[in-house]
Design a protein that fits this description.
Layout lengths: L9 H4 L12 E4 L5 E4 L6 E2 L6 H7 L23 E7 L3 H4 L3 E6 L5 E6 L2 E7 L5 E4 L9 E7 L2 H10 L50 E6 L2 E13 L3 E12 L3 E9 L4 E10 L2 E12 L15 E9 L2 E10 L4 E4 L10 E4 L2 E3 L1 E6 L11 H13 L4 E4 L8 H10 L2 E5 L11 H18 L5 E5 L4 H7 L2 H8 L1 H26 L4 E3 L18 E3 L20 E4 L7 H7 L11 H5 L5 H14 L6 H25 L6 E4 L22 H9 L3 E8 L2 E8 L5 E11 L3 E12 L3 E9 H5 L7 E9 L4 E6 L15 E7 L2 E7 L4 E8 L5 E2 L4 E3 L5 E6 L4 H7 E4 L7
Parallel strand pairs: 21-22, 21-28, 22-23, 23-24, 24-25, 26-27
Antiparallel strand pairs: 1-10, 2-3, 2-4, 4-9, 5-8, 5-10, 6-7, 6-9, 11-12, 12-15, 13-14, 13-16, 16-17, 18-19, 19-20, 29-30, 30-33, 31-32, 31-34, 34-35, 36-37, 37-41, 38-40, 38-42, 39-41
């Protein structure tokens, strides 16, 4: 498996979309010298900004690690307290002399009163908004005291909850775990929904200064915002319309220019008359034969570097720099002979979306470092993904997240922050949400990766299909009417209007899944969240036949790797499926573990111990998602999207993720690399016929050789056939049909596997294995796997070989987080497979710690 690691770029990426200020504009970070205290307490402690109360308490050893064993249970008092943060700072005389001075808070979580030198300057009430305050008349040269008083989000929301004659449904608010009984108060607060708990996350309701704080100062005028609108993009020409917002303190003459640093040319210059206040200036330019931006796997992720410069009196006053990929992105939803299409079109080419749903990387957001962001995105890139869906119960992510997606070619389906609930969206709250939407649409709209804005996650589906509407109708029709009006006001009116005004040309969807305003689950229209296997307990084989125009969610659970489990549950008494610790780190409840066990018994065999259960749960998840991914791609172009739930975890937990909290790849992620490759060779047995599909994402047809082998698990290859095969571009093609009985020629289908290989004209090989029965029925032999270890510059190359077929060969370096290039491998009899393991261990330590096991070891 060839990985596409490109090295650490975060220092460069930090500059991609953050304005670079020059001339008059001064920006000073106010992220040091902070302290905090519990309001009703006495002692002050050092605080980290950006940060949250929980991490500050942890850093000062006032609480234990909330993720360790059962510690989360002891943290529920924190969200019911008020907290005070404070710092002092000096201001240079030259800065004080500026005509305009503002404090900017990029993120306050959530209910905060801010005072400067004893004067209240701000009341904040939305975690997702940025806040700016003029402080020219309050600042002094020495010892400015800045205080932020955080009110308990629970105490603020409780009266709001009590004032309503009915409950707003919020399916994942773990109010009982927080000591609130059935008081699901999270919907009243504009805060990340998953902080209140989810079926894969803990209940840890944070407060704090979670994003940076700045002092900004300038004279006369500054660039406030620059919006690049790609009005028309073809291979011949790109038309870029630019709106520059300039904030001026006085009437003055100015010049605005846009410089193309990539091509070393000035694209456009314009003289303007600025008036006091906010000025909007329109500019436009054309790029002849632009280098286009493509997603991962389709071409280069080329980014132009543009600089917008503001000059006053011939001197440079301010500069804004922007990396921009030139591309056309459209959502095509048109009637066709099946119903209505739903797919993304990139640069005029239909795109099959391969990817995952993304949740925040940590419950404590400031702990997500640049390196974690980079690994998270690169893991998507290395799994051949081209899209991530930023899910609506988390947050609008940091700039770096989107910078990385721009750089590596990952499109973003961006939800607004609403999920699995109904919300009291009227009056002041609705206006607050409108401002939140404006803030974030404007902040993210220049990113090349933004492909779609979506109103919410599953709220429409919940209303019509989770028995919510009918239960409200039955209790009191007036309640139902109120909620539905609030629903439509938000998702049908306010949010689409914000997108239309501030990000024109990009697609807005009212909800996901969505087929129509009545919440119809229509497999021929729109996108689908498919949970009939996991939730509905249909057999895994249903993944192979279920159809949709676009699967925006589907998934199957597994446990983290045993090495990961031992980090948060190190006591042997914890290593049982039903132990208190395992259940605390399984938010799907006992029924989730029962489902895993039931599916294991139905598809595999009973694991012999807990460690084997963990391993087999991962292999089962991988098999299930492989079925789904291949089926979705075989169904191209009817189906044009496959976004698995989910890419990552926010804490160590049993979940649907393909990467655990510590960044370890589960079996599913290794399988995804092959299932999402640019060419997929996919076998499917139907009515005793072996159907062989070749699916290509390549934009040109390719030719090569298709080989099909019948392999006895003990004796090796029984029969081989090969043929030349052309693979059409960007579609799925049924290339061969074979009678299974004739193919086996008397061999027992439980003793053999079908091995398929497609080798293109460059020599690159793609392979797959077809199993002819459930794994519990197959006659797997006991396998003794030989390993040969070769030192490499950054680790070791391990050659694996077995005299018999070995299913799901799993390698681990016990207790280490080293990266393994391929894993959970099917070894064919007598054939070698090479795996690269990156590690700093000595040869002796590596040999001692390397563990190799296969499927049979899990039950014998």
């Amino acid at each position: 498996m060839k990985l596409k690691r490109k090295g650490t770029l975060w220092m460069m990426l930090m500059l991609l979309t953050i304005p670079v200020c020059a001339g008059q504009v001064v920006t000073e970070a106010l992220n040091t010298g902070w302290k905090f205290k519990q309001v009703r307490g006495y002692n002050w402690y050092p605080a980290t900004v950006p940060g949250v109360v929980h991490t500050d308490l942890l850093n000062n050893q006032l609480i234990e690690d909330p993720f360790f064993r059962l510690n989360e249970r002891g943290m529920q008092w924190i969200d019911k307290e008020d907290w005070l943060y404070e710092t002092t700072f000096d201001v240079a005389p030259s800065t004080l002399e500026k005509s305009k001075l503002q404090l900017k808070f990029e993120g306050l979580d959530t209910y905060a009163d801010v005072t400067l030198n004893g004067k209240q300057i701000l009341t904040a009430n939305n975690m997702f908004r940025a806040w700016e305050v003029d402080v020219k008349e309050i600042l002094q040269e020495k010892d400015n005291r800045l205080q932020v008083y955080f009110h308990s989000p629970i105490k603020v929301a409780m009266p709001l909850w009590e004032a309503v004659p009915f409950q707003y449904r919020s399916s994942n608010d773990q109010s009982e775990n927080g000591g609130l009984l059935d008081r699901k108060v999270g919907v009243f607060t504009r805060k990340a929904g998953y902080h209140y708990g989810w079926d894969w996350g803990p209940r840890l309701v944070t407060s704090g200064i979670w994003r940076p704080v700045y002092l900004e100062a300038w004279d006369d005028a500054r660039i406030r915002d620059v919006h690049y609108s790609q009005t028309s993009v073809t291979q011949q020409e790109a038309v870029i319309d630019v709106t520059v917002e300039v904030q001026a303190t006085t009437a003055t003459q100015a010049s605005l220019s846009i410089y193309n640093q990539t091509d070393s040319k000035e694209q456009v210059r314009k003289a303007v008359e600025l008036t006091p206040g906010l000025n909007q200036v329109s500019l436009s330019f054309r790029l002849k034969k632009p280098k286009l931006w493509w997603t991962n796997g389709l071409g280069e992720q080329f980014l132009y570097n543009f600089s917008t410069e503001l000059e006053l009196g011939g001197a440079l006053a301010d500069t804004h720099e922007q990396k921009l990929g030139i591309r056309s992105i459209k959502v095509i939803a048109k009637p066709d002979r099946y119903g209505e299409s739903f797919y993304f079109e990139l640069n005029g080419t239909p795109l099959f979306a391969k990817g995952a749903n993304y949740i925040p990387c940590d419950n404590f957001l400031p702990r997500v470092t640049d390196s974690i962001y980079e690994k998270t995105i690169l893991d998507a890139v290395d799994a051949n993904m081209n899209m991530l869906r930023v899910w609506g119960g988390g947050t609008y992510e940091n700039q770096l997240f989107y910078d990385l997606c721009d750089t590596y070619g990952i499109l973003i389906w961006q939800d607004f922050m609403f999920a699995c609930s109904v919300y009291p969206t009227e009056g002041e709250l609705l206006e607050n949400i409108r401002q939140e939407a404006i803030d974030n649409v404007r902040r993210l709209r220049n990113h090349t990766c933004i492909a779609l804005w979506c109103g919410n996650n599953e709220c429409l589906d919940a209303w019509f299909n989770w028995n919510w509407k009918s239960s409200y109708d039955k209790a009191n029709p007036a309640w139902s009417e109120t909620i539905w009006k609030q629903f439509k006001d938000l998702y049908f009116d306010v949010l689409p209007a914000v997108v239309a005004e501030h990000h024109p040309g990009v697609c807005y969807r009212k909800s996901s899944p969505y087929a129509d305003d009545a919440g119809t689950r229509n497999h021929t229209v729109g996108d689908m969240h498919y949970w009939e296997v996991w939730q509905g307990r249909k057999p895994l084989s249903e993944f192979q036949v279920e159809r949709s125009r676009f699967f925006s969610e589907y998934g199957f659970q597994s446990f983290p790797e045993f090495s990961s489990i031992k980090r948060y549950a190190p006591q042997p008494g914890d290593w049982k499926v039903t132990s208190e610790v395992m259940m605390a780190h399984q938010r799907g409840g006992i029924q989730a573990n029962e489902r895993i066990l039931n599916f294991l018994n139905e598809e595999y065999r009973e694991p012999k111990d807990f460690e084997s259960f963990v391993y087999m749960s991962q292999l089962l998840q991988a098999d299930a998602m492989k079925m789904a991914m291949e089926a979705h791609r075989r169904d191209m172009p009817y189906c044009m999207g496959s976004l698995v739930w989910q890419h990552n975890d926010c804490w160590p937990v049993a979940s649907w993720s393909s990467r655990d909290y510590y960044g370890r790849w589960k079996a599913q992620h290794y399988f995804t690399v092959k299932s999402f490759a640019d060419i997929l060779l996919s076998p499917f047995v139907k009515d005793k016929q072996l159907e062989v599909y070749l699916i290509s994402d390549r934009l040109k047809a390719t030719s090569g050789t298709l080989t099909i082998r019948v392999v006895d698990m003990r004796q090796g290859v029984l029969a081989t056939q090969s043929r030349k095969q052309v693979v059409p571009a960007n579609t799925s093609t049924l290339v061969q049909e074979l009678d299974v009985t004739q193919l086996l020629n008397g061999a027992n289908p439980r003793d053999v596997v079908i091995h398929l290989i497609y080798t293109d004209k460059t020599g690159r090989a793609y392979s797959n294995i077809c199993f002819l029965d459930k794994h519990k029925h197959l006659n797997y032999p006991a396998a003794t796997i030989r390993t040969t270890i070769q030192p490499m510059t950054d680790g070791y190359e391990v050659t694996l070989c077995s005299p018999v077929f070995a299913r799901g060969v799993f390698l681990s370096v016990d207790g280490k987080d080293d990266f393994i290039s391929d894993n959970y491998i099917d070894l064919l009899p007598g054939e070698e497979t090479k795996v690269h393991i990156s590690t700093r261990l000595s040869s002796e330590e590596f040999r001692k710690n390397l563990v190799v096991r296969s499927f049979v070891d899990g039950y014998r």
